[in-house]
Each structure stands twice: as structure tokens, then as C-alpha cells.
Specification:
The protein folds into 3 domains: 13-164, DNA methylase specificity domains (Adenine-n6-DNA-methyltransferase TaqI, Chain A, domain 2, Alpha-Beta Complex); 167-215 and 363-408, Bipartite methylase S protein (Helix Hairpins), CATH 1.10.287.1120; 222-356, DNA methylase specificity domains (Adenine-n6-DNA-methyltransferase TaqI, Chain A, domain 2, Alpha-Beta Complex), CATH 3.90.220. It is 33% helix and 18% strand. It contains 11 helices and 22 strands. Helix 2 (126-133) packs across helix 5, helix 5 (169-207) packs antiparallel against helix 11 (359-397) and helix 8 crosses helix 11. The chain is elongated, with a radius of gyration of 28 Å.
């Protein structure tokens, strides 16, 4: 989307980014430091240096500061950053990300991987300008601002000339308020997701290791060789079945469900192995993230190992266990020397000791972890809907297609 003056409301202006800024040659500048910030510049206290790594998608999250003394700060005063300034990442994969420096943040100095944008708040809303900067449209505009090199980097002169709509100040504030409310909802949901994921990790550590037992379930936990619980199976001659792929977050899934380009076999699939619903698969990347469970029937490469249980098990329990740090750690020890792209053999797998709780307890643990997964999944879906809602709001509010009521 490119802003078009003819498509904007009559009382809106289409101007350069610099038109929103204070009238100063320090309005949009990048920092003096990069690789030039050396150890001798560091102090235990003094003026904190703003780093682009502090800029996240929605907020400014300070990390570990380095400090410079007052003398160096005065020498580089043009790079002074004050609360209310917008800080933008200049270099690397995250370049273009931006955040507003919080009001309680001390006056700072900019590092060379960042850009500061100082807004004239007598005529403009810094929150509105920030909404413009994080708008989806700008990602396309930044293509013209990025220099070619080892890493993408934003050109400050080009940044100053980016075109943006400029509503009257009261309307800027009204638009920013609506979009900030959407941001707050997204941020709250993402924090809740992080908390739920941390709780799920704790539950896995406690329940899958037998550190915490389920109420009302009796019986001794056993530690068995993985080969005592699972056996390798090979079924061939099912060339008409669907091809499956191993994924670390969704298990074995049909290749048609993969996004992007999919590599198809160059030869026939007569020699491929059949995977049935409930099977586990040792894939080429099993040592990076556990074995993969299949909810689907289909074919996998002959290089993969298909596993079926030899004993009564709850499949969901072992699906969770094979993603645990305990199992992956034990598997890593068993396959020392294995490198990316090499197969873990069934013999390697058999040497790993795995828990075998009573089947009733396996089922009870699986239910608890499934509930935790469901909570996380619902929250992620909610966050995605909120992001889509915000995107839709930006498309209509930042173009004037939908006007808000505001006090002049």
C-alpha cells in the first residue's frame, strides 16, 4: 500500500517523515558507535548507551547497558536520546523495528546500530508516528531505504523522505489511542502465553520425570530401555499413500500441509515406509527436538525409522516425553558424534533409558499436559486474531477510510 494524496481526506496532508519531527538537524540521526565503541569507552556508570536489541515489536525492553562518561556524551551530543524519542533498529534482520523510549528512561546516547526520531509534539503525536512506522506498509517502503551489504541497513537520508499521511493533531491522538489499545491487548496476551509455556515446561519436568505423582494412582515407575517399549517396523508396497514430512511442532504431517516450496522424491515411492496413525518416527532431526508422532497415515523415506509400541502405552504421554529436555539430553549422549543430516539408528535409540509408569498414570499425565497445550493454543489463536484486527484497523484508520470522532 502506498499513500496517495488524492485518496486521503481533504484535511489530511501527505508529508515526509521529517515533517513530523522537531526543527533541528538532530531530528533523525543514527548513532556514532558500532564496532568503534571499544572497551576503553566503557564505564561502570554514566550515560547509558541505547542498543537496537532493546527494541521489540511492541515495546522498549532494556537489556544490559554499557555506559560512557559525560565527556564522550558531550562530544556526541547530536546522538542524545530523551524519553519520547522513537528508537529504530538500523542494521540486521530486525532493522526497521521501532519503539518509543519510555518516560522514566534516563537521557541516553545512541549506538551505531540505531536511529533516533524526535517528534515535534506540539504539532504531532509521537504515538501516531510510531503507529505509522510499524504499519505493514512501511516494510515495503524500507526496501528503498536499505543499503546492500553483508547485512541490511537503513539509510537515514532515505528514511527522512518517506511519505506519510498527516491528520490534524486531535485525530492523530484518537487514532493512536485506538491502535495502542489493540497493542496493549496483544502484549497482554503474549505475556500470558509466555507464562503458560513456562508453566507447561515446569509440568513436564515434574510429571514426566516422576518428581510429582498423580493423585489416586499407584504403582512403581520403571526405567526401561527404549527398545523394550518400542520396536522398529517396516511396511513397504503402499506407493499410493500420501507422503508425510517430519515437523518439530506438528509431528508427522502430509506434505500438502507444509507452507512454501516442498521437495518431492525424484524416484518412485515403492520403497518408502508406511506410517500408521499412532506410530512414532525417528527423523533425521530427532536429536534436535524429540521423535515425531503421527496423527496421519502415509509414507516416509526409507532412511526414517518407524516405531510401534511393544507394551501398552498412552501415546500422548510418550509424544510429550519425546519432546522433553530429559529425553533429548539422554538421546544426545547416546548419539555423540551424530551431525545434522545423519540418521539416528534404532540401535542408538534402544540404548536410551525411558520411564514406563503405570498405564493409568501415563493417561492422567497426558491429560494434564494436553489441557496445558490447549490453553496455549487458544491463547496463540487469540493473539493472531488480535494482530489481524490491528492490521485491519491500521489499513482503514491510517488512510482516513474510516474517521474517528475526536475533540478538536
Amino acid at each position: 500500500m502506498i499513500y496517495n494524496k488524492k485518496a486521503l481526506p481533504e484535511d489530511w496532508i501527505l508529508g515526509d517523515l521529517i515533517d513530523f519531527c522537531i526543527k533541528s538537524n538532530r531530528a533523525i540521526v543514527d548513532g556514532p558507535f558500532g564496532s568503534n565503541l571499544k572497551t576503553e569507552h566503557f564505564k561502570k556508570q554514566g550515560i547509558p548507551v541505547i542498543n537496537s536489541s532493546f527494541v521489540t515489536e511492541l515495546t522498549f525492553n532494556a537489556g544490559n547497558y554499557v555506559y560512557v562518561d559525560e565527556e564522550l556524551f558531550q562530544r556526541e551530543i547530536r546522538s542524545k536520546v530523551v524519553p519520547g524519542d522513537i528508537v529504530m533498529a538500523k542494521i540486521g534482520a530486525r532493522c526497521g523495528s521501532s519503539a518509543i523510549l519510555p518516560q522514566n528512561h534516563p537521557i541516553s546516547i545512541l549506538s551505531g546500530n540505531s536511529i533516533k526520531i524526535s517528534i515535534d509534539e506540539n504539532e504531532n503525536s509521537k504515538e501516531f508516528v510510531w503507529c505509522l512506522l510499524v504499519n505493514e506498509y512501511l516494510k515495503n517502503q524500507f526496501k528503498d531505504c536499505k543499503s546492500i551489504g553483508a547485512q541490511p541497513a537503513i539509510s537515514t537520508p532515505h528514511l527522512k523522505k518517506l511519505k506519510f499521511p498527516k491528520p490534524p493533531l486531535p485525530e492523530q491522538r484518537a487514532i493512536a489511542q485506538v491502535l495502542s489499545t489493540a497493542d496493549a491487548a496483544i502484549h497482554t496476551t503474549e505475556k500470558l502465553i509466555a507464562q503458560k509455556e513456562l508453566r507447561k515446561k515446569w509440568l513436564m519436568q515434574q510429571l514426566l520425570m516422576g518428581k510429582k505423582r498423580m493423585r489416586g494412582v499407584e504403582g512403581e515407575w520403571k526405567k526401561l530401555g527404549a527398545g523394550d517399549v518400542f520396536t522398529s517396523v517396516t511396511k513397504k508396497g503402499f506407493a499410493d499413500e500420501e507422503l508425510l514430512s517430519a515437523t518439530q511442532d506438528r509431528g508427522m504431517i502430509p506434505r500438502t500441509m507444509l507452507e512454501g516450496r516442498v521437495t518431492m522424491p525424484t524416484t518412485g515411492t515403492e520403497g518408502f515406509k508406511l506410517v500408521e496413525v499412532g506410530d512414532f518416527v525417528i527423523s533425521l532431526r530427532s536429536f534436535q527436538g524429540g521423535l515425531e508422532y503421527s496423527y496421519y497415515r502415509g509414507l516416509v523415506s526409507p532412511a526414517y525409522t518407524v516405531l510401534k509400541p511393544k507394551k501398552p502405552i498412552n501415546e500422548e504421554f510418550y509424544k510429550q516425553y519425546f519432546k522433553s529436555t530429559d529425553f533429548i539430553g539422554h538421546l544426545a549422549i547416546a548419539v555423540i558424534g551424530i551431525r545434522d543430516g545423519k540418521q539416528i539408528s534404532y540401535d542408538d535409540f534402544c540404548t536410551v533409558k525411558i520411564p514406563y509408569p503405570p498405564i493409568q498414570e501415563q493417561t492422567a499425565i497426558a491429560r494434564v499436559l494436553q489441557v496445558a497445550d490447549k490453553e496455549i493454543s487458544l491463547l496463540k489463536a487469540k493473539a493472531e486474531k488480535l494482530r489481524e484486527l490491528k492490521k485491519g484497523l491500521m489499513q482503514v484508520l491510517l488512510t482516513g477510510k474510516k474517521r474517528l470522532e475526536f475533540q478538536k
